[in-house]
Each structure stands twice: as C-alpha cells, then as structure tokens.
Amino acid sequence: MSANSLTSTLPSPLRDLVATACPNDEDFGSNEKDKAEVVNWIQQAASGSNVKSLEPKELDAHLTPKTFLVGNRLTAADVAVYGALHPTVKSFQPQQYYALPALTRYFDHIQSRPSVRKAADSVNPPLASITFELDNMPKLERKADPPKKKEKPAKAEGATQSADAGAASKEGKAQKKEKKEPKEKGQAAASEGGSSKKGAANAGNKAAAVAEDSGEPVPSMIDLRVGHILDVQKHPDADGLYIEQIDIGEETGPRTVVSGLVHYIPIEQMRDKYLVAVCNLKPANMRGVKSFAMVLCATSKDGKEAGIELIQPPPGSKPGDRVYFEGEKYESASPLSQLNPKKKIFETIQPGFTTLESKEAAWVDPATKSVHKIRTKNGVCVAPTLIGASLS
C-alpha cells in the first residue's frame, strides 16, 4: 500500500501535513507490524478535527510510557495524530492540559520535531506552535506502592517424595520397628537419604541466588553495556529530569531511562549520544515514569556544579556491547541478573569508580589499590574532560 493511499482518507490540511513531514516509505513503518499500527492510527486521525476516536484521557494513559506511537522513531502516525489533536489541544486551558501530562509532553515533543514544524508552518491554514505554561503546573501526588506480602516458601515436593520413596524401599521389618527403634541402621539411612535429597532440592531452588549473591560485592556483578540515546525529552512532572529512550541492543526495543541531568547537560548534548548504561538495577519509578537503567556519568571532584559528563564508550561501539573491568578476576565474570537493593552492591562498589589522569574510566580496588579500567572489546571508556571524577 502506497503512502498516498494510506493518507487519502485524511482531510486537508492533515493530508498535506503528513505528506510533507513524512515523504519516505519508511515513515509509514519499517516492518509489517509497524505498518499495520500506523494505518490504524491514521484511520483514527481521519475521523476529523474533533477527534472523536482519540479520547484525550485514554490517549494520555496510552502515551505515559511512550515517546512515539509506533516503534522507536517518528512515523506518519505521530504526524497524523498531532495534526488531528491540534484544534483540541489549542483550545485547552492550563488546567486541562495539566490533567493530561503524558499527552502534553507527547504533543509538545512532536510539534517541536524539525520536519513536523516545517510541515505545520507550510500547510494552509498553518498549524501554529502551541506554548504550554508549565511553571505553575501542580505537582502530581502519587501514592506509594503498597508493601508486597511475603510469600511462604513452597515445600520441596521432590525432597518429600524422595524421602518417602527411600523409606518405602526399606524392608517391612525396618518399617514396623520405626517407632520403637528410630536409630536403627535402616531407618537412619532412610532419614539421612531424605535429608540429603531435601537439601539438594533446596539447593536447586536457590542455586541461582546463592551463585549470584554469595561473597563480597565485586564490580563484575554490575551489568554495564553500551547504549545509544534514540530520543530524549524533559520529564513533564520534574524540572530536573530527562526521559530517554536508550537502545542497548535488546530485541524488545529501547529502555526508558530517567536521569537527573537537566541542570548539568543541555538536551542538545544528550541527543544521539552513545554512553554506558547500568542495566541490572531494580526498575524505579521516577515521578510517575518507570526507569529501567541508569546512565553512567562522571561528576567533577569539585562537585556537580563544576561539571557532569556522560561516560563515553570507545569509537566503533554498538548498542549492547559488553562493558567490563580489566583484570583476570573480572574480565570473564558474568554480572548479576539484577542487583539486590538490600545488599547495596552498587553502593559498595561505587566509591572506587573514578577517572584517571588519562580521563579513562576505572575502578580502583580500595583494599589493594589495583586499577581496573572500564572497557569494551574496542577500547577503554572515557570522560571527555574530567580527571579524578566520581562515577555514578
């Protein structure tokens, strides 16, 4: 299906808006699934300027975790919905768009894209840029998540069955004397067999946890990977936070990451950047947006106000590349699947993170003072300018 046929149902000037902002076939989806979603959104936008099928509250809920409607880039779906929403959003009073923070954030993001802005100014009549007064926007009150109930550990059925089978296999005479002679050799063997197998079953149930959490915290427990910022925008409910979509090479797509860098790194210096992401922290809600990783940054030894910089992977790095610590002890070690917040593994390791005189990122063992540079297969990760900086 051609782009012209896809947009033919759209009213003018919406049709012209989409055609101008999205001149390429890939703007209508890069695969069959995305194309189908784009068609669905265009059909909804085709309902007219009153957008009966695009209920703002439902759309706000849908957009809360998203940057774009389809996939990880701007498509014709975003442009069509932006154009269809324009008359409605233009009529909003502050209290109305205050109540729709995700929709407001999304709309402002789309209208600010260069291709959309150029197209919006060229259609007849033009779709003027809408300014949102956010300084007086009330802070959202969010209830804390209720505490999780602790579940009782399940009985090890395998161990019970093994013990029963061991006891059943004993001679009838040993079974009859079970109560009178609990320490008889046969009964003792059954008891020991059941006990050992029960222990084995418990060990099997907890093997991963023991393997991951045992021993003192070491830097190789931290899952560091190369990430690429596909999109970044300011958090609608927090002046100091960015919301980033970061590609770390996963088939599930980019991760949403919230970072407190607004006052330290201009948004222009965040766009399209390659960085190092901490990928096995427990996801955390940051003013209503769940963050699924952390951006590794260098903070000047003189404090935040003296400078914060993104740690940069070496040239040639690709999203998902493994980032590891030099040294035989750590290079081949696998990180934990997720850091246990109660064990404070990252907090224990973090004081040793620093940048060397060469601006290379490293972890210095506090006990031995040995230096372990942070690197990928292509080279060592660096801070652009900071020496002796703390990494976090």
Structure description:
By secondary structure, this protein is of the alpha+beta class. It has three domains: 3-122, Glutathione S-transferase Yfyf (Class Pi), Chain A, domain 2; 156-173 and 200-214, no CATH class; 219-391, Beta Barrel (OB fold (Dihydrolipoamide Acetyltransferase, E2P)). The chain has 13 helices and 15 strands. It has helices spanning 3-7, 14-21, 32-45, 56-63, 76-90, 94-98, 101-111, 114-122, 157-168, 172-176, 185-213, 328-331, 345-349; strands at 224-234, 242-247, 255-259, 274-278, 284-286, 289-291, 294-295, 297-299, 308-310, 322-325, 353-355, 361-364, 371-376, 379-380, 390-391. Strands 1, 2, 3, 4, 7, 10, 11, 12, 13 and 14 form a ten-stranded antiparallel sheet that branches. The chain has a three-stranded antiparallel sheet with strand order 9-8-15, with no helix packed on it. Helix 2 (14-21) packs across helix 5, helix 3 (32-45) packs parallel to helix 5 and helix 9 (157-168) packs antiparallel against helix 11 (185-213). The longest helix has 29 residues, at 185-213. It is elongated, with a radius of gyration of 29 Å. It holds the Pfam family Arc1p_N_like. InterPro entries: Arc1-like_N (IPR053836), Glutathione-S-Trfase_C-like (IPR010987), Glutathione-S-Trfase_C_sf (IPR036282), NA-bd_OB-fold (IPR012340), tRNA-bd_dom (IPR002547), Tyrosine-tRNA_ligase_regulator (IPR051270). It is found in: Cytoplasm. This is Nucleic acid-binding protein. Residues 136-148, 170-186 have a biased composition (Basic and acidic residues).
